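re: ur question from the group chat, yeah i did fold both. here u go
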Amino acid sequence: MSSRSLSLSQTLQDYVSAVGVRPDPLLERLRAETATLEWGRMQISAEQGALMDLLLRLMGARQAIEVGTFTGYSALVTARALGPTGRLVACDINPETTAIARRYWAEAGLADRIDLRLAPALDTLDGLLADGGEGRFDFAFVDADKPAYGAYYERLLRLIRPGGLIAVDNTLWSGKVADPSENEPSTVALRAFNRMLHGDSRVEMALIPIGDGLSLARKR
């Protein structure tokens, strides 16, 4: 037993990949294609995707929002877990990377479950609120521009039902959030977000050291 989380060596990471995530040829092809892109490292880890899938199924989630879609890996995982009656609103601004996403969603038979909205995410979230979306969603995932995390969170907290879950990616930021010498804008924004979430009595929360850090907030 250990009172601390493990730091994964490459050998241990390979072991987790081998026995902790079941093979999925479609997801593996999407990972491989994304890895060839300049910003391919932005894709979530396979084990984080597996955790999100399990959480969504445990919740029985049917309505979800994603802020930051990139090439569609997390959206594919989410839409599958929502089931045939589920719906995911996916927010992004990049037509090139989301074109990759659309190909894989179509191949997976999930295109009709994913409503991709190419617009600034705050505009989309405000539109959902204006359309009566408050309290109508079960789950939200955030993996986008870090300085806007606080603004996304406040809107999503209104859109999520009581008992719903918000998952926020990159909250460990390669360890930079714990290094006082690191003060570029995204690092500063993530530190502020982490402090805010830690003190937010509206939710129950945990920061999970998986991938680049995944914070979970369950709305009370």
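okk and heres the other one u asked abt
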Amino acid sequence: MNKSILALIALALAGCANTATRPAPVAATATRDPAAEAHIRQAGAEILFWSQAQRDANFPHMEAQFPGNVVKAGGRVHPLPAGTKLPIADDEIDSFMAAQNVAGLIVLQDGKIRLERYARGYGRDGRWTSFSVAKSFTSTLVGAAIRDGYIKSVDEPVTRYIPDLAGSGYDGVTIAQLLTMTSGVRWNEDYTDPNSDVAQMFAKPVPAGADPTVAYMRTLPRADAPGTKWVYKTGETNLIGTLVQRATGKSLARYLSEKVFKRYGMERDGFWMVDQAGHEIGGCCLSVSLRDYARMGQFVLDGGKGVVPDGWFASATAAHAEIGRPGFGYGYQWWTYPQGRFGAQGIFGQAITIDPAHHIVIAISSAAPHASDRAYSLARFAFTQKLFDAAVK
């Protein structure tokens, strides 16, 4: 997740094709009324500073609070048959879930459910917000766009697809450097600071027809040479979302539906929050059911055949950037961990963690008391390790 959550995790344990013509950019939706636009602009700050009661009420129902687009599931559901019950005591699971405000916990091994538990009013038919777990979904769409011929390679300059970034700190930055958050552009991801970039990027109105992410990101100065330093930046994943939209001519919700939800067989429709221009927020705010988070992990384990290029996930989940802790790194919007594991992480306790050596996927949805917290992260890591250990006994 952010720089602080990274430190906690580290202590305790992110051009046109040769045969395709680039489609027209996705048009912004019609202007909303000023009150609605102001509500959307303040969404980041509101969510970061909700009370516990608001988190409990809203995390499973973000569509009731903010506008967004539906990610349609298909008619065929990818099966998740029951596996052998994980050998871990029920009271130990209950204690962990209560202490960590966990609403949903699922463990797959070899594509079978070995543990599935719900709490806090959540259930199999519900959805839960992802926060930055969405980043790994968005980066997967880059792989899909390359396979589909909309993007030539990750080595292309970002300005080829977002020309309105020309003349900004993103001149000379490649798609790969966006994916690995090594652009060199200055950014503040402090979730406790209402004036940080992550809290302010949608706070200001933009001219009609302008993309809010691009309008903000093009104002940021360069701090380091591209490719030389890793700094976690949610705004850059939002740029990746804009890039995919412009390259494909499709909304992120539609493209994710076509390439993953329908094709792989997600069980429930998803919901993706949008900015004031009506574009899905690539770095955040995709709501998905617990089983479908697990299916996303299984989709990655299965290699995304027919959706992303061969070898895409092997590269995407490798450590392309050093993050300052031995054994930990950052790939294409995936975190890399010791023991060959990798995962997607979101504030307030969201996670998909994958152990490819043992074919294990663990997905957790939570309403943690704080966006990031050292003791919370240490306890989560310790319990996640217990789940991995139990699965390989």
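fwiw on the second one: The CA atoms of residues 60 and 316 lie 29 Å apart. Residues 1-32 have pLDDT under 50 and may be disordered. idk if thats what u expected
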